[in-house]
Fold this protein.
Amino acid sequence: MHLDHTHDGPSAISADAHRPDGTRRALRIGLGGPVGSGKTATVAALCRALRDEISLAVVTNDIYTREDADFLLREAVLPPERITAVETGACPHTAIRDDISANLEAVEDLEDEVGPLDLILVESGGDNLTATFSKGLVDAQIFVIDVAGGDDIPRKGGPGVTTADLLVVNKTDLAPFVGSDLGRMATDAKAQRAELPVVFQSLRAEGGVTDVAAWVRGQLAAWTA
Amino acid sequence: MSRAALLVLADGRFPAGGHAHSGGAEAAVKAGRITGAKSLEEFCRGRLHTTGLVSASLAAAAALGLDPVALDEAADARTPSVALRVAARKLGRQLMRAARATWPSAELDALAREFPKGAHQPVVLGVAARAAGLGAVDAAYCSAYESVGGPATATVRLLSLDPFEATGVLARLAPDLDRVADRAGEVARCAVEEGVDVLPAVSAPLLEISAEAHAAWPVRLFAS
């Protein structure tokens, strides 16, 4: 990443930390993970937790619909002009990793049209355990799995579980019903990720998204420092 | 000219957004016009000799250094469907980003300033080819190949078509691709003397109409 260098011309090319007018751009955080693990619900909860403190927007990458964008609009977590859907041609991992051009346009257009923004959350469509975000698109990434998807996922590893800046194990309230061993998940995650943080959360329980929101605030503080 | 630069620009993995577009194949599959390798080949041959030729000629003309603003207007005039114009500009903008990062050039910067939301993709492709040190026929080859490569790849995903069959379709179209690229190079050279109006204006009405319908689908895999 060329964090402290800007290109001439009308639009930033990739990961530059500054916008064409020289101001610092928004922090971009990606959320990826398997289908149904709770990425959109986490995004919605983060929007509710942070929208009164900072200026934020969301880009969704659905596989074949506008389902995720429509969910966020319906829940009214942000005004509609702050939510953009990117179409991915059936391949969300391509749009967030191999060919990030559509997503870069979406984040830049959001900053041009509703900015200045502090934070843009880029949500991937549900994908497999190898799907990670390009460093040309996001500054940090969260990988969301859930206890009902199998408590062996942290042990299986893969780039998402192993390298994401934050691993979220979601739906902890379901653990007793699906026979998932949270302790084992925590031990396996620690083995895969060493010092990288892991959050166990249930959006239905008290506390909800608090820990993830605190982590995002920490990222923001580091970005603007 | 560098033959290797041509491979870089023509590579389907060149990160310019094409993977999210089917070139009309999704609408044709849904309508039952593409059902397998044979009908895919017919679809691609039709697309190649209509919008493929128009795009290749625009790209070749841009690669020769014709005024990209005039070429962009010519592209608009040759694209009746609003949905296709939107898709072409979107892809042009994405290609612009990738090309400027790959082959930095004052001409690309100027075109990006002129069209912050994107010029037509073939025009950007031609200017990108220039920046890469490629010639008019090279640009035409890239454009012509994209016009059939996109639908072929998309059909593999849409129909679970055997990828070997889809690649066979592209190989069988190679002689047609040669002819279209040569023709595009010739007319582009004519346009240098006679202006952009001599560029081909052949169209495929069904592609235009089905693109309008496709853009209104609530559920689809591809953006166009």
Observations:
- Chain B touches chain A through 29 residues (CB under 8 Å).
